[in-house]
Amino acid sequence: MRALTELYQIDGRPMPVPDADPDLSFTDLDASDSGRDESGVMHRIVVREKVGSWGFVYSSLTDEEYAYLTGLLAGKATFAFTHPRPGSSAETQVSTCYCSSYSIAWHNARRGLWRNLKFNIIQC
């Protein structure tokens, strides 16, 4: 089984260490009234700023690792996601998040190996 990390947790349960550091991005959310007017001028009504998104990649997982990781996400519309505080490598914070989608390839049924699990965790 892969090592677990306390830096990333779902509902207080540690996640397996990913292959590389997760990709972190921030996005502003605009209201549905945002857009261009008849003269082409853009009008933005920002509802929320800097909504976080973390992209995780696991190149190879055993049946056991795959079941553990997907079990952390199963049946939850939202969950408490522990992650490093942006700008600090020593502190963590907890955000309410959801998993947008995930994809995986079945690599070897005889050996119980899975490849290329990718998913995003997005702040609510």
Automatic annotation (TrEMBL):
<protein>
    <submittedName>
        <fullName>Uncharacterized protein</fullName>
    </submittedName>
</protein>
<feature type="region of interest" description="Disordered">
    <location>
        <begin position="12"/>
        <end position="37"/>
    </location>
</feature>
